[in-house]
Give the backbone structure.
Amino acid sequence: MTGWLPKDFWTRNETLVAGVIALFCIIATLSDPRFFTITTVSDLLRASIVIGILAVGAMLVLVSGGIDVSFTAIAVFAMYSSTVLFLAIWPDAPWPLIFAVSVAFGAFLGAFNGFFIAFLGLPTLIVTLGTLSIFRGFLLTFIGSQRISDLPPDMRDFSRGVLARGTTEAGNFYSIPWAALALVFVIVLTWFILKKTMLGRSIYAIGGSVESARRIGINVKWTQFFVYVYVGALAGLAGIIHGSVGRMADPFSLVGLELSVIAAVVLGGARLIGGYGTLTGTLLGVALIVIVQNSLIVVGIPTTWQSVTIGILILLGTGVPAYRAKRAAARAG
Amino acid sequence: MTDHASTKTITSAPEFRLLIIAVFVFGLMSVLSPDRFLSAQNLTSMAFQFPEFAILALAMTITMLTGGIDLSVVGVANLSAVVAAIILTQFADPAMPASQSVIWLSFAIAAALCIGALAGLVNGCLVAFFGLPPILATLGSGLVFTGFAIAMTGGSAVMGFPDTVAVIGNAQVLGIPVPLILFALLAIVLHLILTRTAFGLRVTMFGANPLAALYAAIDINRMLIKVYVIAGLFSSVAGLIIMSRANSAKADYGSSYLLLAVLIAVLGGVNPYGGYGRVIGVVLAVLSMQFLSSGLNMLQVSNFARELIWGALLILVMVINTHAVTALRGSFAKTPK
Amino acid sequence: MSSDHDTAFIDLRAITKRYAGVTALDSVDFTVQPGEAVCLAGENGSGKSTLIKIISGVEPATEGTVRIAGKERPYLNPRISAAAGVMVIFQDFSLFPNLSVAENIAFATQLSTHERFFKSRATREIARKALDRIGVEIDLDARVETLPVAQKQLVAICRALASQAQLIIMDEPTTALTEKEVRRLQGIIRMLKDEGVAVIFVSHKLAEVLEVSEKVVVLRNGKKVAEGPATDFDTQSLTYHMTGRDVPEVPPSEVMAGAETLMHVESLTKEGSFADISFDLKTGEVLGITGLLGSGRTSVAKALFGLVAPDAGSITVEGKPVPTGDPQAASMARIGYVPEDRLTEGLFLSQSILRNVAIGRLDAHTSGGFLNMAGLVDEASDWLKRLKVKAPDVEAPVQSLSGGNQQRVALARWLSRAPRVLVLNGPSVGVDVGSKADIHDIIRDLASQGIGIIVISDDLPELLATCHRILVMRDGRIIDELDGRSVTEDDLAHRLAS
């Protein structure tokens, strides 16, 4: 049943996304020469940081054969509660500490998902749907539902930190914030885990076949547990970056983004059945979604059509390979 | 399939547990807040509140029975409502005499139902002919439907309907709220479809084992398309109720209903992998949720705490249900092969 | 006997295993010497899988002692067992389709050495060594999902070798292989034995492995009923021991003289699967189609029922052409198809017996849009009675039935549709021997009622017991047409394999 799939089938999905991005850039540059400048690139990069970190986590879950819709709630929860916590006990704490606490909160909430999924064996979609409500409900009921713009000073300092900034000859301002380093760090760390550790290979193995994984002695439960804790931690990081860079702890933000993030990952070639998904594909998917969200107007499509465009991209990006697979299966008989 | 189920099978059914939960929640709320929870006013207001998302849960149920899911229900509801609203605002105006506006209202309703059916057809084709996983197909199409609604309205609410529109969402017939009547009708229709028609049996059996359905010469594509069309139609009815109750239509109304609909279906005992689910379970789940949320409202608990409790309830029910499943599996594993 | 026990790699004494009151194994002694190949034979339910589970640490024994490599193991789990060198190759190979050949081979090894980091070069080295050991050449970077079945099996063997296997247990190792591949497997096994690796074959088809085995152990109803050197057994005596009786099968009676042609298949071709398949089927005739796995027999069977769309060729039933590639059209033309894999393809296990039968007759019992429930129940019950299905309640889920009764339910679904042609793919796979004979009776009986039956099978005694004519397929083509009533099993086996 499986012999029909050409080796490079899914790499082609990544090529497809890259192709669409390239096409978009060409059309955009033709219609507005100012599009392809460092300003645009730095804007898009800034917009990609939070979604990118979340997407890397979502990809990991998909690879392991699950799906997680609660990570946005985790992100907001971790961000808001760590902000509230430090405002109450130590407003002048250095930002790395606040970040670390947010990451720890995220990991802790992720452990909840992990417990129900890995140890009680509940379906991932249902569990994370439930915890999405729980985390959000808990946050808004017991921790707070007010926007906080008076963040700990060091968080604001973080948001001012830039790797590079400048003004182009045309007079356009650009900057690349420190937060970009966090995305790079997450990518490198995840790459290392997935490619260079047995744990990472086990995640792929479980996604490929849980039963086989169990039979050769992979500790399926702990590996799954790790995935959800790690994703929680990434969400905690993404959340606190979102709060810092936006200079506002908004308990209503981020939630609602989860399906777009999953869409980005799926566009990048990860499969819902598990076992397949690459960082390159995920980042390309994120890039495409971010470009559509921010620059649609440049190619002459009104922003009100943004949602339609993303929807169609998802349908095409997943439909073309699905249809091809269906045809191939029919041919193979 | 037949009704001669013994008492034992009735009490061991997941629906029986739900009945107990529903009765328990109702009793608890009545005790905690007797004068307010049991007041006629509260009971009526509950009956107006839940049908819109309950109908979406019914739409979710039929797709889940096939092992699919419909993440586009809210998108379809809003798109249908927006189309109806545009018809109502473009061709009818609030000053119009009732006899005339009724014609436009029926026209708007027909258009909304057509949109629902059409959207369902799109979903069905994506799933059946193109082989997309339902979760992705309806995620994508849901964005497209919502997107159309945004594009048509520019993202703002459409309002200014003739008074007759209120009939769908705010009127009562013989003291029974119209939305409740609509929900009851749709629930009965869905129940009959699922248990008393060839199509309904095929839906459940396909959900239980898609491959065996193929080998049993079931016309799977046609069946799937029908399933999603029904889901689309139900969604558009929900959209019309939302429109009437809000007296306006907007692309992002009821965005919390999507997860709520999934939650209710699962709470109602519908197996998200397909093959099992009963309308009565979903109805009981809806009632439990509504009693709980109204009761909590009486007790001055915030909306956010309600969300928390829903989520906890969902996971709790899953834990109970799957432990039953594990026990079942355990007993299976113990028979030698 | 005691010296046997001393040197044995696996030494089970008086093993009993009970599940909730059912005795799956009853005081069984079982030994495997280093470098020895043992055939473990038995029907489904004989206890052979339970025995394997105990050796591999999946299930504990209720009574008795387990020694592996001379050490008593009061507590076993799959990891301990694997660490002691016991490797099981399941029928599905338990590979990871999404990972490379190298990783599949090396994964278990790296887990057992508690590696934390994944080293690509070391992985390839482990894999290369294992492949070299059995002298095969497979692309290390290929994804396993792209490999043909025989190569997947080799990957699974290499994985076991890479983990320092002292004993490799192979579950039904030859069912999926062609003759050539079986010979290569035999070669590999001889090589392994020379290196001191023991092998247990778990199988109910043993002819192919008998010649590389030293010992045969036969289980029946949880008891060891026969044990001895492989040279003492042949297919017939094995069958006798496995079933406990010689099952006398009545050969099929003659096709009625002057029976007319019911189905005509003309040059059915599908590239890569089968080519130029032509035959006629008469009313009341049982036609066998056989061939090794990969010969195209299953694809042809599916094509007859529209599950595979052929590139060319035609099918006519009673003179009327049947559109190809459309199961509904085939079903309308009153062709029925009972698939090979009952559990995943044939039945809706969680659904009631009634529904499983009724699914084929829903339209006939619909009036005014609604189903006539009473009519469905009556009809289904009637068929269940006629096929002697032992079921307490038609509302019980089909998974509560035994294999033989399940197969009868699958048959009942099609029979209730009054088929003209019935395609039975592996009609008695996984069915106990008593039910098997019953199913053969049913087949003969149906044929005598004028239904044309096509039996797709590689079970030679079954073909001989039921078929009037047998078509032999190889490489997607029909290479032989034999008279089922005169051909002998040896002759058939020879033609199949040559």
